[in-house]
Amino acid sequence: MPTGTIARLLIDKGFGFIRDESGLGHFFHRSSLRGGVFVLLREGHRLDFTIEESQKGPRAGDVRLIEG
Q1: Which of 5, 8, 37, 47 is deepest in the core (most CB within 10 A)?
Q2: Which three-class secondary structure state does DSSP give residue 38?
Q3: How far is the C-alpha of 50 from the C-alpha of 42, rounded, in Å?
Q4: Sheet of 15-20, strands arranged across
């Protein structure tokens, strides 16, 4: 399972971007967050996630907070 940090977060729009360990960015939607509260997330928090296909291309799914 890939890990990364929140690179950008748009709380009011309900989505953000995770930068993985290789430097790639992954879109994630608040609905993909598991076991956490979206509005409590902050840039820099570490996450693990899966990569899933969407209509607009790959995105992060099953996002879980590792530390924060």
Answers
A1: 47
A2: helix
A3: 20
A4: 25-29, 15-20, 3-10, 46-54, 57-67
Per DSSP, the three-state class of 39 is helix
Angle at alpha carbon of residue 29, lines to 26 and 25, rounded to 5°: 10
Quick one: tokens of 12? 């009011």
pLDDT digits (tens, 9 = 90+) for 3-54: 999 999 999 999 999 999 999 999 999 999 998 899 999 999 999 999 999 8
Residues 6+ away with beta carbon under 8 Å from 54: none
Check residues 56 and 47 and name the one with the higher pLDDT: 47
